[in-house]
Amino acid sequence: MDSEPAIAHGGIVRSVSGGRAVVAVATGGCGGCGRRAGCGIAKLAPGREETLVSVAAAGLTLAPGMEVIVEVPAASLLRAAVAGYLLPALLLLAGAVAGHAAAGDAGAAGGALAGLAAGLSVSRRLGARNPLRLRAGTPPAPREPESR
What we know:
Elements: E1 6-17, E2 20-26, E3 50-56, E4 67-73, H1 74-127, E5 133-136
Antiparallel strand pairs: 1-2, 1-4, 2-3, 4-5
């Protein structure tokens, strides 16, 4: 197992096929850090009690109904945030500046749209890499919120 810091969340295996497992993950937040419903996982699928994720089952013997832990390396989460938020915003601004230099205000609007589209396209391709890891086990009990 990697010693790299990871964010872990419990789930239930729904199905296993072709070396991949479909896992139902509760969207209420795990409470592992005391944030509970304030956790970002709760925002993953608003209005639903759970969301389904597909994870490589690498070397695990899994069956529907098993409790598992889904992990995402902390560094991967940071890279995903940069690719998903910062990259499109920077390309939108770069497109607007380049468009303005080439064709004034109308060029700035067109360049901004083109930059945003390019940023979202690149972000989507980068996001297609699934950094999720899976391990068998029961997630740890939630910790109490830290007092401030």
